[in-house]
Amino acid sequence: MPKSTEDPGHGICNVRADFSVVEYARLATIRREPGSRQNQAKMQKAQETDLAVEAVPKRTTIRDVARTAGVGIGTISRVLNSSSQVSRETRARVLEAIRRLGFRPNAQARRILRRRSEIVCFLLSNRDFLHPFHARILQGVESYASGLKQHVLFAVLHYSPRTAPEKIDLPSVLQEHGLIDGVILAGTIYPNLLQRIESVHMPFVAFSNNVVGMDGAQQFDQVGFDDFAGTLQATRYLISQGHSRIDFAGDITLPWIQRRFEGYRRAMRENRLKPVLVTVRNAESFVDFGQKSGQRILALESRPTAVVAGNDETAYGLWLSLRRQGIKVPDEISLIGFDDREEAVLMDPPLSTVRVHKEAIGQTCMKMLLERLHHPQMAFSQRILPTEFVVRGTVRQL
């Protein structure tokens, strides 16, 4: 009902809550001077305007739908989100009320009804935020999310594997309830971080290749790629090209490098060849590891004809070391990397390597997280994506 107030000149006038002060002043001026035809015309026009304003329908709210259907707001929410916890009769009554009232929830209302922010966090742990491998995974996450009107926050966390889980200082967005819907974990992931994430009851999916220190079945959603199959295929290719003295250079204290070594070793043993591991201590980086491995290989009396490196950075370090000593790749030693970083094609010659489809990993992580949010009770799952061996210029046929 309109609220009434006294007009100083002509008694009662209707005051609408959505009228501006300017409208009131205009009506009051017209009503104080009713004599002239001009003012009568103005008065008629103002009344028409008043009627037009009053005819504007009020926006239907979820409360209107609940009142019409005779149910609570929570029931409306469950119907809109296709919950199975609503009877067929109640659902039909709610849908009829929605149809009759022309109710259309906006995006913000839908987020509230779902109790979701439609924001996820990509948490990179113990890696530099510009790390190119994980940057490509993030690109995959964002490309999948944007297609579904989801938003991605990026955060970096550094912590020690020896830190008690409750002492890990998570980014504030993970600790404030309701700010984000879930987390995609990447980087080097230790068990204490997984325990910390679980303690705040946050749904998450982990990039599993870099999970360190966990044995047996891992009770969480995870996406990864097949390290073992990648080097198995690459080593078999070298053998098919006539190579039999093939070394592996990599830090097998890292679980993903260990899996790659196992793939190399399987290929060697199935062809009755002797696997040789080249490793060094106190390397400052993967590139440094590769350079020091190259020095060790060059010091051998019987050099290999080919080397499988634990990753592209190690392969690059090997290439630098061999080049400094005048050893030509692949004329004297063939070389294979792993990851297919952007820099692989910039080497001279371009590096043959095992390609990891990083964007696909990110897309799969995002898809799996959304599945978890829609079906919280479903069993945990693990998805392993295939790798691809890319032949370029660092392998020669013997």
How would you describe this structure to a colleague?
This protein is of the alpha/beta class and about 400 residues long. The protein has 3 domains: about 60-115, lambda repressor-like DNA-binding domains (434 Repressor (Amino-terminal Domain), Orthogonal Bundle), CATH 1.10.260.40; about 120-225 and about 360-385, Rossmann fold, CATH 3.40.50; about 225-355, 3-Layer(aba) Sandwich (Rossmann fold). It contains 14 helices and 14 strands. It has a 6-stranded parallel sheet, with helices on one face. The protein has a 6-stranded mixed sheet with strand order 9-8-10-11-12-14, with helices on both faces. A two-stranded antiparallel sheet has the order 1-2. The longest helix is centred in the first third of the chain and has 19 residues, at about 35-55.
